Amino acid sequence: MDITEKCRTHSWTPRIGVRGKIDRKAALNRYYDNIQSTINQMLDEYHQPPIDPAIKSELDDYMMSHGVDKKLLTDIQDLITS
Fold first, then answer.
1. Cβ proximity of 13 and 19 under 8 Å
2. How far apart are alpha carbons 46 and 80 in whole angstroms?
3. Is there a contact between 30 and 18 (Cβ–Cβ < 8 Å)?
4. pLDDT-derived band of residue 60, with 50, 70 and 90 as boundaries?
5. Nearest to 65 by CA among 55, 76, 57
6. CA 43 to CA 47: how far, in whole Å?
7. Fewest Cβ atoms nearer than 10 Å: which of 11, 23, 51, 59?
8. Its pTM surpasses 0.70
9. How does DSSP assign the chain, residue by residue?
């Protein structure tokens, strides 16, 4: 079944939105939980694409020339690769 057929036969339930009759506080809590769950899922599924080391070096040099600290770049790289 292709996507156009599926969208006509299956109901769509958003991952973040909150449905149903619930009080405002419970809705907000569920909404924020859904956002955090979606963020966690996206981070878990992320795989850094390969990048040419020469291009990475040029990007790092550019960032540092615009005030980004080398330690911050290293910390970000460590987060991405862990």
1. yes
2. 9
3. yes
4. very high
5. 57
6. 9
7. 11
8. no
9. --HHHHHHHS----SS---SS--HHHHHHHHHHHHHHHHHHHHHH--PPP--HHHHHHHHHHHHHTT--HHHHHHHHHHHH-
Cβ–Cβ < 8 Å for 16, 31: yes
pLDDT in tens, 35-54: 999 999 988 888 888 999 99
Lowest mean pLDDT among 9-18, 19-28, 34-43, 45-54: 9-18
Residue type, 6: K
The tokens describing 11, both together, are 């109901």
> 38 with 15: CB under 8 angstroms?
yes
Cα–Cα distance between 38 and 41 in angstroms, integer? 5
